[in-house]
Amino acid sequence: MTHIARDGGRGGSGPALTGNGGRGARGRARPRVLIAEDDDDLRELMVLSLAEDGYEIDEASSGHELLALLAHPSGHYDVVVTDIRMPGLSGLDVIDDLRAHRAPRDWAVGVIMLTSFPDLPTRAEAHRLQAVLLEKPLDMEELRDAVADLIELTQVGS
Fold first, then answer.
1. How many Å is the Cα radius of gyration of the chain?
2. What class is the 32-157 domain?
3. Residue-wise DSSP of 83-139
4. What is the pTM of this model?
5. Closest by CA position to 74, among listed 35, 111, 32
6. Residue 151 neighbours by CB under 8 Å, 6+ apart
7. Beta-bridge partners for 50
8. Looking at residue 71, what is its pLDDT?
C-alpha cells in the first residue's frame, strides 16, 4: 500500500512517499486519511491535494475496498472521505456499518461524504451518520478545510 505524505504544510516541495512509518519529522504520527472514490482522476486529485497538508493517505476505489481497509487491524483513520455512490457497496452502506457495528472509538472518525446528488434524503442520511456532506464538483480548498477541521475536532476529543 502506498502512503503519500509531506513533512511541511501547504506550499512545500511536493508529495513524497513516506519511509518513516507515517511519522513526521518530530516522530509524531501523521493524521491518517482514507479516500474512497471510484473516479480515478478525482481520487488522484484529492490524494495530491491532501498530501500537500502532510497527511498519510490510503486509497480505495470501491465500497468493498473501503470496507476492507477499515476492517484491517491497522485501519484506524482520523478522517474518511468517501463518495456516496460507488460500485458494490455505497459509501453510505460502509459508514452506516462503521457507525452501527464497530467499537466506540470508530465514532471518533471524522467522515466526509461526497455527492453529485445533494437531495434532502441524502442530506438527512449524512446528518444521521454525523458526516460532513460536500457537493461535486468538488472544491479542493473546501475539502482541505473540512479535513483539517475534522482532524482538529478528533484531536481535541482524544
1. 15
2. alpha beta
3. ESS-SSS-HHHHHHHHHHHS-GGGGGSEEEEEES---HHHHHHHHHTT-EEEESSPP
4. 0.81
5. 32
6. 31, 55, 78, 79, 110
7. none
8. 87
**Domain residue spans in the chain?**
32-157
pLDDT tens series, the chain, 158 aa:
344 443 333 333 333 333 334 444 334 589 999 999 999 999 999 999 999 999 999 999 999 999 999 888 888 899 999 999 998 899 999 999 888 876 665 567 899 999 999 999 999 999 999 999 999 999 999 999 999 999 998 777 55
Instruction: Indicate the length of the chain as a whole number.
Output: 158
Quick one: which of 56, 59, 78 has its CA closest to 4? 56
Within 8 A by CB and 6+ apart from 85, the residues are: 91, 115, 116, 117
CA pair distance 157, 65, nearest whole angstrom: 28
CB 22 within 8 A of CB 54: no
Residue type, 43: R
